[in-house]
Amino acid sequence: xxxxxxxxxxxxxxxxxxxxxxxxxxxxxxxxxxxxxxxxxxxxxxxxxxxxxxxxxxxxxxxxxxxxxxxxxxxxxxxxxxxxxxxxxxxxxxxxxxxxxxxxxxxxxxxxxxxxxxxxxxxxxxxxxxxxxxxxxxxxxxxxxxxxxxxxxxxxxxxxxxxxxxxxxxxxxxxxxxxxxxxxxxxxxxxxxxxxxxxxxxxxxxxxxxxxxxxxxxxxxxxxxxxxxxxxxxxxxxxxxxxxxxxx
Length: 248
Description:
This protein is of the alpha/beta class.
């Protein structure tokens, strides 16, 4: 029998212990500058699952399989977790890698011993998505052990919602069904990034019916942050202000 721990109920307001997002999601249209923006964040290792970092100078390493991700993670831990930030670029690529892992998990289960399909998502009535979520949880748990701050980069999915009988365009994170809900619920901040005036980069944390954004962090709640300018001559981002998101 485990030892019973004495519970001490609080008698006064307990102060917050952190102000920065431990898990940050940034999503946008493809080629909007997410990877370039990551490259401007000091001590941020980009785990490139899509090959999009080839064109930027950055702390980066390509990841082509979950086996490679496991080896890289082990090396990071062995090195004493030297990175303050670890970025996953992108979430949809990680989802694709998790499908074979989910299929293997199902085949090893009692109910899946006779399954001879190549993809667990082939199961009827969407049963395979349960196993995809289980596989996702395994790997996200591993990823969150690699650094104090995890940044998850995602693509934009344009969808249509019904609002008072009218179809309205909505912007959301491109992930599958309940997996998207779980990822967003676990995040401390979700920002939609877009090009502003003169191609500057802006990130909005202001939520609406048409936009999936938000933050638990007080300094990001309801904010629209200009995080970088674009220099046409240099063809690069300048005046990058990550310190507006991560307060030091």
